[in-house]
Amino acid sequence: MQIENYQIEEHNSQLQADHRRRFDFAASEVPGAEQIIEKLVKFQVAIPSWALGTGGTRFGRFSGGGEPRNLEEKMEDIGLLHKLNRSSGAISLHIPWDIPGNIASIKALAAQYELKFDAVNSNTFQDQPNQAHSYKFGSLQNVDKAIRKQAIEHNIEVIKHGIDLGSDALTVWLADGSTFPGQLNMRKAFQNTLESLQEIYEALPDHWKVFVEYKAYEPNFYSTTVGDWGQSLLFANKLGPKAYTLVDLGHHLPNANIEQIVALLLMEGKLGGFHFNDSKYGDDDLTTGSIKPYQLFLIFNELVEGMDARGMDHATGLGWMIDASHNVKDPLEDLLQSVEAIMLAYAQALLVDRKALAEAQAESDVVRCQEILQGTFRTDLRAIVAEARLRAGGAANPIKLYRDLKVREKLISGRGLKTVATGL
Amino acid sequence: MQIENYQIEEHNSQLQADHRRRFDFAASEVPGAEQIIEKLVKFQVAIPSWALGTGGTRFGRFSGGGEPRNLEEKMEDIGLLHKLNRSSGAISLHIPWDIPGNIASIKALAAQYELKFDAVNSNTFQDQPNQAHSYKFGSLQNVDKAIRKQAIEHNIEVIKHGIDLGSDALTVWLADGSTFPGQLNMRKAFQNTLESLQEIYEALPDHWKVFVEYKAYEPNFYSTTVGDWGQSLLFANKLGPKAYTLVDLGHHLPNANIEQIVALLLMEGKLGGFHFNDSKYGDDDLTTGSIKPYQLFLIFNELVEGMDARGMDHATGLGWMIDASHNVKDPLEDLLQSVEAIMLAYAQALLVDRKALAEAQAESDVVRCQEILQGTFRTDLRAIVAEARLRAGGAANPIKLYRDLKVREKLISGRGLKTVATGL
Amino acid sequence: MQIENYQIEEHNSQLQADHRRRFDFAASEVPGAEQIIEKLVKFQVAIPSWALGTGGTRFGRFSGGGEPRNLEEKMEDIGLLHKLNRSSGAISLHIPWDIPGNIASIKALAAQYELKFDAVNSNTFQDQPNQAHSYKFGSLQNVDKAIRKQAIEHNIEVIKHGIDLGSDALTVWLADGSTFPGQLNMRKAFQNTLESLQEIYEALPDHWKVFVEYKAYEPNFYSTTVGDWGQSLLFANKLGPKAYTLVDLGHHLPNANIEQIVALLLMEGKLGGFHFNDSKYGDDDLTTGSIKPYQLFLIFNELVEGMDARGMDHATGLGWMIDASHNVKDPLEDLLQSVEAIMLAYAQALLVDRKALAEAQAESDVVRCQEILQGTFRTDLRAIVAEARLRAGGAANPIKLYRDLKVREKLISGRGLKTVATGL
Amino acid sequence: MQIENYQIEEHNSQLQADHRRRFDFAASEVPGAEQIIEKLVKFQVAIPSWALGTGGTRFGRFSGGGEPRNLEEKMEDIGLLHKLNRSSGAISLHIPWDIPGNIASIKALAAQYELKFDAVNSNTFQDQPNQAHSYKFGSLQNVDKAIRKQAIEHNIEVIKHGIDLGSDALTVWLADGSTFPGQLNMRKAFQNTLESLQEIYEALPDHWKVFVEYKAYEPNFYSTTVGDWGQSLLFANKLGPKAYTLVDLGHHLPNANIEQIVALLLMEGKLGGFHFNDSKYGDDDLTTGSIKPYQLFLIFNELVEGMDARGMDHATGLGWMIDASHNVKDPLEDLLQSVEAIMLAYAQALLVDRKALAEAQAESDVVRCQEILQGTFRTDLRAIVAEARLRAGGAANPIKLYRDLKVREKLISGRGLKTVATGL
Question: Which InterPro entries match (chains A, B, C, D) (predicted)?
C-alpha cells in the first residue's frame, strides 16, 4: 500500500494550529532553531531489512500480521515509514535473508520510495540449508580452514550484492566466540579472525568501508572474539584505513559508559557505524530511547562534539542504523518511535551551548556543566523535530496518521495474517 | 548567614518576564496545572544532616570550604536551601553525629527556619570513640549478645532524641552482613537481627514508624543481612504494623526494576520511606536525576499511582529524603539540583493521563502506553515547578541566586575554609 | 539403544586399579566417607524432558544428530544417563511438548528405566498451534480474563497428566511481565496472577506441591511479574502451604547472592525446588558447575545446613532438577557433566565440618571460616563420588564409557541425523 | 619480631607425616610434579606497602592492633610473611605513604628480609597536606596545566625513589575521570593524560617499565579516563615500548571476561603487571581466590599459555602483586591466604595438559576441553604447593604457625593496640 500526499496534507492541516503554537514557542526559546531544523532534515536513519517483522526470543515469537514476505515488501514498508517521517530514507540489507533478485527492478523500487542502500550485512551466525560447513563453532575464527574459507567467501558475495545495489559499506557482526572455558585458544581465535577479515578487506572496493561490530556476549556465553570496542579497534587498526568500529548500544557489559567509547573512537578516527536500540538488561533490542533517553542524548552529545571536532558531516560521516527487535509492538510503529527518539536526541545535542559547556569544563564547574546538559535535555524540542519533518514533506504525527489510515490493517488484508518476515 | 526576602524578590522580579512567558505556555499546554502546583507546594523533601559537607570515597575526600561545624550550622544550611526552594523544609538527623544539645534552642532554630524533624537515623556501622564493643562484625546481627545489646540501646537512645525533637520515625540502616563466604550463619544472622529489631520496635511510641532500610552490598562485600526488598519486607511483616521498608535508589543490584519494587511495596502497605540519589555503577550517591532522569520519573509514576490507589497523602504518606554524597560539587548546590529533579519528576508523574494509560493497558496497546509516558516526560514542566516555588515564596532560580548572593563565600568567611562536617 | 550391565562391568574393571588407589587415599583423608557415599547414592537429579535435544538462542540452533523424536525416546535417553551414573533416575515432563499418550506404556517404560516422574511443567510462554488466545501479553497476568482462564485450564490439565503418571508437583514458570515502561499496571498484574494461581492451587491434590519459579528478566525485558525470590515468596505465602518457591540458578540479577536466598527460603519453610545450571552473563543455561563451581558448593553448603536444621531429607525434601540448554555440546554428555558437578558439590557440602565452622563463626574468626570452606572445596572428592556411583551399579567414568560405546553414533543410526527434539 | 628457623623446623616436623602422605599421593598422580615445584619455588608475589594495615570503606574502618607504623615495620611484616611462605619476597612501595628515609638502611633491611623492591606506586588520587594544588578534579588529566605539572613531578619523584631502591617499574593508577555527565571533555582528558604520561615516560631509566593501570569506575562514578584495557592499551601503544598495561582483577565491569583480556594483552606484548584480589560486586579488594577460585585458575591458565607462547619467564616476565584491602581479617593472615591461593592457581595452570587441550580445541570437542580444565582444577595440589614451600625453607602451614607463634599478639605488644598503618 502507499500513503498519498493528500493524506499527509489533510493530517497536517488538522494538526497545524497546535503544531504552530508549540513550534512558535519552541523556536522563540531555542537559539539557532533554523540551523537545527536544517540538519534534522538531512539526517537519515537506515532501517534494517530484518526489523520489519515481529522479533522473538529463544522462548518464542508472537507474530503480528501483514509482515513483509520478500524484499520488495520490506522496501514497501520502509517506503511507508519514510513517507511518514522523511528520516528513514535508507535500507540496510541482510544477506542471505534478502538477496536481491532482479537488481534493476530493486533499484527502481528504491528510487520510487526514495531509499538509499546503506551498509550490507553478512550472516555467519546461522547455518543456511544446504550449506557445506556449519558455523556451530564459529566462522571467521574457526579452527577449520575450510569453514573460515566458506565464511570469507560469503562475505565477499555480500560485498558483490552491495556493489550491485550501490551500497558502500559492509557490516560484519560475528557471533564467533566460545560458550565454555577452554573451548578456544583465544589468541588463535583472534588471529584466525584477523586473517579472515584481511581476505575480506582485500575484496572491498576502494571507496568502501568495513564495519567490525563488537558484542560482549550472546549467543556465545563465555567469550566473544570481537567482544568489546578495544578488540574491534585492534582489528580495525590491523586491517587498515577502510576498517572501522561499529557501536551497537546493546552490545556492552552492564553499566558501560558508551558515551566515552564513542568519544574515544571518534578521537582515533575509527568510529564507522552506529546501531540504535535500547535495553535494560542485555542486548534487549528495545525501541530506541524507551529505557534510557538521557543516555541517548549524552551519546549524541559526544557524537556531535566529536564529529564537529573532526569536521565530519553529521548525515554522512557515520553509518546510522536502527537494530532492534519488535517483540510486542507493531514493527512499523516501533520503528517510528525509534526514529523519533533519535531525532529528538540529535536535536538536543545540536542545541547544547558548546561554548558555555567548554567554559564550565575549563573551570571544573561541575554544577554548571550539569545545568547546561540537563537544561538542554529538559527543553521540549518535539515541535522542532516535527517542523523539520513537515518541511521535508512528512506527517505532523506519524503514528497517529499510521493508525488513522489503518496501514497495518491494509497490509494484513494485502499480505495475510500469518506471514512471517525473515529475520530474528 | 541568611537570605533576606527582599533579595529573593529582587531576583524574582529580574527573571519575571522570562518565567511568565514560559509558565503561561506550559500552563496552557498542561491540563490541571493549578492542581499540580498545589501539590508541588505541599511536597517537602527532608535533607539529611550528614549531607551538608563534602562527601568522599575510601580513596579520599576533597573538602570544600565553609562546611557546617555543628548541628546549628547544619540547620542554618538547610534553612538557606528551604528559603531558596521552599521544598526542603525538613531535616533528618543522624545520631551520634548530630546529637542535639539544648533541645529548646534547637527547636526554636527549627521554627525560625520553618524546618520539621523528619526520621532520625541510628548509626551502628561505625565505632565511636570510647564505645565498649566494636561493630566490626555487625551490630544487631552480632553473634555476641553484648554487642547486640549495645546496638539496641543505641537505637532506643536515638528514638528518645527523636521524641524530644518531635520526629515520628526511626530509620535503621544496617551495614550488617559478611565479607567472606562462611563468615556468617545467614539464618542466625537474620534471627539475631529480628530479635534485636523487636526490642527496638517495643521502644517505639505508638504513632511512630520504623523504616528497615535494605542494601545489596557495601560495606560488606559478600552478604548483607537486610540485603533486598524481600528481606526488608520479611522483617517488616514479622515486626508489626509500625514497621516499614525504606527504599534507597542506590541500594540495588545492577539493572533492578525499582519501579516494580515500589509498586509492590505500596500494594502490600509496607512502603514507608524513600531515599533519593542517583547512580551509574553502585551506591554512587550522586545528585538525584543526574544519571537516569527517566527512571526517576517512572518511579514517581508508580509512587503517585500506588499512593492514590491507597488514598495516601502524597506529602505525608511516605518519608521523603535525599541521601547523597557530594564529592565534587558544593553540597548546597548539589542539594538544590536534587530537589529540583525530584520536583520535576513528581510534577511529571502528576501529569500522567491515568485514564488514558489504564485504557491503553487494558488493550495491551504497548505503543500507546509508551507514547503517554514519554509524552509526559518530554513535556517541559520546569516553569510549572518554578511557579510553585514562587508561590511558596522561593526563588525563580535558586542556584543562580545562591551564586549571585555569594552564599558559599560568606559561609567560608564565617566558618573558615578548612572546616569538615561530620558525616561520610 | 541400551547399555548392558556387562559393558559397565568391563569398563569398571579396566579402571578399577586407578579408582581403587584414589578412593583409598580419599577415604583415608575424609572423615565419614561411608555416610557421604550413602547419601550420594540416594541423591537423584531429575532430567527435564526438553533438555535432551540441542538448545539454541534467538540467533539460531545448531542441531546435533540422533535427538529423541518423542517422549519414549526421551525416556530412553534418560535411561541411558541413569544407567551410566545412577543419579538421574527421574524425568520432569513439559506439557505440551511431551504429553504422554498411552499412560500405561509410559509408566512401564519408566519402570524399565527405573525413572520416577518428577514435577510436571506447564507452558504458557509460547502459543501452540490452534490455541484460542495468544500469550503475547502474558498468561496468568493477562488483562483479558479469557486468556487467564485458558492459561489456568492448561495448568490444571498439566496437573491431570501429572496425576496419571504419579508425579506430585507442578512447576509454574511464567514469562509474564512487560517489555516497556507503562505497559502494565504492575500491581494489577500481580493480583491477576495471584487469582489465577489460586485457581490452579485449588486443583492440586492434597499431597501435591506447586513451585512458583521466579526470573529477573527475559523474555520480557522491562519487568517480570514473578521477578525475584521476594515476589515468589509473596505468592507462595498468599497461596498456602502447598505453594513453594523454586530457585533456578540463572534467574537472578548480576552478582546476586543465591546462597543467602536459599538460606532464607529454607528458614521460611518455603523452598520447594531447584533448577541447576550455570552462567556468566544472564540465564545462559550452561552446564552446571562449568563457570562458578565454588558458588555451586556454597549453595549446597546452605542447602545441606538449612535442610538439616529443619530435619529435611536431602533426597526428597526438595525437587532437584537440571534446567540447562545444550548449544555446543552433545546433550547427553552435557547432562553427565552437570550431574557429576552436582554430586561433587553435594559431597563437598556433606564434608564441611559443621561444628568447627559454627565455632569459628561464633568467634567471628573469618580467616578460619574461609579455611574450613575452602579446605573442603579443595579436597578432591571425585573418587568418593565415583565410588558411590560404582556401588549403585554405574560406570566409573560415564563420559568415557558413553564415548567408548559410541552411544551417540548409535542413536544417530537409529533415529537419523536430522531429528530435532521438542524444546527450546 | 622475627620467626626463627628452629620454629619453622619444629612446626614442619610436627606436620611432616601428614604432609608426606599427601605429597606422595599427589606426586604420584601428577605428571611433572618436580618441574612444577621448581617453578613454584621461583614464583614471588610482591606485597604492597599499604596492605599491611586494616583496610576500610567510606563507611568506616575497624582497625586491628599492631599495625606497622612506618616503612621499617612494614618491611618487618613482609619479612614475616616471606619467612613463612617463601613466596612473598618483594615489596611494592607507595609514595608518599612510604617515602624511604635512609636509603642505605632500608636496603640493608630488605637484604636482611630477602626482599626485592618491586614496582613503585605514585599517588595523585589524594591531596597531601601542604600540597599546592588539589587533585579534586583529576591529576594528569586536569584542565589546569599547573596541576598536571605538579602530578607529573610527583611521578618523576617516585621514579627517583625507585631508582634509589633498585626498583625497575612505575605503576600509575589514576583516579582521574568525572563524576557527572558533561564534567569533562573526554577527548581532551585523554589527550592531557597522554601528554602528562609522555613527560613521565621521558623520565624513565632505559631498563624501566611503566604500568598504566585501568579501572572501570570508583572513585569517579561517571567516567574514568583510563577506564578499561582498551584505553590502557591505547596509552601504552602511544607511549612506547617501555609502557605496559596493568590488570587489577577488581577493576572491571560486571561479568567481564578477564581471561580473554589477559590473553589478548599478552598477544600484543603489552601486559606488564598484575594485581591480585577477588570480588563479588565491584572493586571489593577481597582475599585472592576467596570468591571465584575457578576464574583465578582460568586467568592463570591464560597467563601460563600466553607467556610460554612468547618465551617469557614466569617469575620475572610480569610484575605480580597483591592489591587487596583487609577489612575484617588480620592483614597478615589475609595475605597468607591470598598468596596460597595464587600459588595453587599457578600450580594448577602448570599442570594443564596443553597438548591434550590443543587437540581437543582443534576438534572443537567442547566437552573434552572442559574435562581437561576442570579435571586439573579438581586435582588437589595443596601438598605440591606445600612441598615447594618446604623446599624453599618455609612453613608447612603458614597460618597455623603464625597463630601458634602468636605473631599478632607480639606485634601488638611491640607496637601497640591502636596503631594505624598508612594506606586505604
Answer: L-rhamnose_isomerase (IPR050337), Xyl_isomerase-like_sf (IPR036237)
